[in-house]
Amino acid sequence: MKKLKSACLASIIGLATVCSGMATASDYDKLVQAVSGEHRSAKNKARDEYRNPQQTLIFFGFKPDMTVVELTPGGGWYTEILAPALKGSGKLYGAHYPDTGEDNYFSKSRQRLEKMLKSKDIFSEVELTDFVPRKASTLAPAGSADLVLTFRNLHNWRVDGVKQFYADAFKALKPGGVLGVVEHRMPTSMPWKGNERSGYFPESVAIELAEQAGFKLAASSDVNANSKDTANHPKGVWTLPPVLRLGEQDRDKYLAIGESDRMTLKFVKPKN
Are 4 and 219 a contacting pair, CB within 8 Å? Predict the structure, then answer.
């Protein structure tokens, strides 16, 4: 089990790390079933080794009766876990790029996601909202969310966009609600200036901007860490799997490294 840095005592229950006072093992039955479910493809399950969905969601305090917001679900990798785990007892909002009718990445991504959500009954309760990078967005009704999640997105939005996202998340969350951030971690030895387009993001900046928005850092985890990743790659983070942007060039080398080193940060919106 990878290292957890938090204020609670951890106990190991199967694959789940449950922190005392946060939840019980029975709270995670639906999550365990969703992760292992037959609705997930073998290709998606193969990435569990690096994305650690069960451990990551438990670290963020996930419960099946929560109201959860997932930022830019993309192809729905996490959606196919969150939707069945919340169905019937909680609520899932997918805050995704709007379909403006234009022939661009954002509209096409929304269209693909909507098609996926119509493909299986497990997605029938998912509600989509509009998220526009660097513009104020209503991710969910104000003060309604228990948990807002973003996976590998901060590098896309730059400083102004991250500031706006944090403000949007703060507004959507209930007092005491949690913001969970997973992001490609830029090594402290790598200067950010000149490497902004590498796909990596400085952990110190992620924390600083969240605190400026009013959040408090509650805990961090090494559950998605990868010490083999130096972040020094010809095509940035996309050199590594699953993208493997260099194709067959040094393929075995990058497969041996695996997916990126990632920070996993748990922020809380203060109750007062």
Answer: yes
| Residue indicated by tokens 């590498």 | 198
69 C-beta neighbours (distance < 10 Å), count: 29
At 178-233, the pLDDT tens digits run: 999 999 999 999 999 999 999 999 999 999 999 999 999 999 999 999 999 999 99
Contacts of 42 (CB under 8 A, 6+ apart): none
Give percent of the chain with pLDDT exceeding 70: 90
Query: What stretches of 133-231 show up as alpha helix (H) in DSSP?
Result: 154-172, 203-212
Residues 265 and 153: their CA atoms lie apart, in Å, by 13
- Listed by start position, the domains of the chain span 4-268
Q: Which helix (H) or strand (E) holds 179?
A: strand 173-186
Are 221 and 266 in contact by the 8 Å Cβ rule? The answer is yes
Q: Are β-strands 127-130 and 145-151 bridged in parallel, bridged antiparallel, or unpaired?
A: unpaired
Tell me the two tokens of residue 261: 């080193």
Scan for tokens 């309604």, then name that residue: 144
Handedness of CA 25, 75, 269, 211 (dihedral sign): positive
Cβ neighbours, 10 Å, residue 16 = 18
Q: Which CATH class is domain 4-268?
A: alpha beta
Query: Which one-letter DSSP state was computed for residue 229?
Result: -
